[in-house]
Amino acid sequence: MIALSVNGAAGRMGRQLLAAIGEHPDAQLAAAVDAPGQACIGLDTSVLSGGEPSGVSVADSASALVAHSDVIVDFTAPPVTLALLDALDDSTTGVVIGTTGFSADQLEQLRGHARRRPIVFAPNYSVGVTVALSLLQQAARAFGDDYDVEIIEAHHRHKVDAPSGTAIRMGEVVAEVLGRDLADCAVYGREGITGARQSKTIGFETVRAGDIIGEHTVLFAGAGERIEITHRATDRMTFARGAVRAALWLAAQPAGLYDMTHVLGLAP
Ligand code: NAD
Question: What topology is assigned to 2-121+236-263 in CATH?
Answer without folding.
Answer: Rossmann fold (3.40.50)
